[in-house]
Specification:
Blueprint (H helix, E strand, L loop, with lengths): L2 E5 L8 H14 L4 E5 L5 H13 L7 E4 L5 H9 L4 E5 L5 H9 L3 E6 L3 H16 L4 E5 L7 H9 L12 H8 L4 H4 L4 H25 L4 H13 L1
Parallel strand pairs: 1-4, 1-5, 2-3, 2-4, 5-6
Helix pairs in contact: 1-9
The structure holds adenosine-5'-diphosphate and magnesium ion.
Adenosine-5'-diphosphate binds next to helix 1 and helix 7.
């Protein structure tokens, strides 16, 4: 049964689509069957996927792509869960109902945050949604310039912060232009290494979830841990 990762953040331009595409491909490169669902009406992930198919042919990475409106996400996720190892949902900014549906369907939430006060403030709403569903969260500082003092100040304010920080790197954008990702275009680049490290963190959280299912006697302590994670 697939694990569902929703990339969410109220603030537009935080890096949701960039992070969703990169996580999806990195997981597929590890041999997983991955589906991506775009519920953002802007359809950026869909554009990316179309370029990918036009350039490299259908089924290039084995990503299953779906674009749909938020209210259908629940039924689509149930259908895809049986076919995949991971489902990545890219969600729209500002539309709380849609984001809520995408968060409800998830096993984990990834929240990209750029080192800016407005990104920081917008993050609280998304964190609250995840907390209401008692879901594990990774807040990911994204597009961080080198030696940014502001980024450090903002990091100090953020709960559930991932150890991995994504730098401000042209490859994150230029690879998407080509319908690919950093890990495909330049596997040894800093951008690619950051994504691989992030995916490692994400799969570790979801694996922890699996252990919990496998060992119900440990459930209480693990659930308690999960709760601390979302409320800390
Ligand atoms: N780590 C990064 N380094 C450089 N550019 C980035 C990075 N993350 C995102 N971007 C750029 O920032 C813009 C917004 O990113 P996007 O993924 O579209 O955000 P969202 O989906 O949250 O609106 C895009 O132009 C994207 O190429
Ligand atoms: Mg987007």
């Amino acid at each position: 049964m697939a694990k569902v990762i929703t990339v969410a953040q109220q603030k537009g331009g935080a890096g949701k689509t960039t992070v969703a595409a990169h996580i999806a491909v990195a997981l597929a490169q590890k041999g997983n069957r991955v589906a991506i669902i775009d519920i953002d009406p802007q359809g950026s992930l869909g554009y990316w996927h179309r370029i990918r198919e036009e350039k490299f042919g259908e089924g290039y990475t084995g990503l299953i792509f779906n674009s749909l409106s938020g209210w259908r996400v629940g039924s689509e996720v149930s259908r895809l869960r049986k076919q995949c190892d991971y489902i990545i949902i890219d969600s729209p900014p500002h539309t709380e109902t849609e984001a809520r549906t995408a968060i409800r369907s998830a096993d984990m939430i990834v929240i990209p945050v750029q080192p800016s006060p407005t990104d920081l403030w917008a993050t609280k709403a998304t964190l609250d949604l995840a907390k209401a569903e008692k879901l594990p969260v990774k807040v990911v500082l994204n597009r961080v310039p080198p030696n940014s003092r502001l980024a450090q100040t903002i990091a100090a304010e953020l709960p559930e912060l991932a150890d991995t920080i994504l730098g401000n790197r042209v490859l994150f954008a230029s690879s998407l232009m080509e319908g690919r990702t950093a890990t495909e275009m330049e596997p040894n680049s800093s951008a690619a290494q950051e994504i691989k490290a992030l995916v490692k963190e994400i799969t570790a959280v979801l694996k922890d979830d699996d252990d919990e299912e496998a060992a119900p006697q440990e459930k209480t302590s693990k659930s308690a841990k999960k709760k601390t994670l979302v409320t800390a």
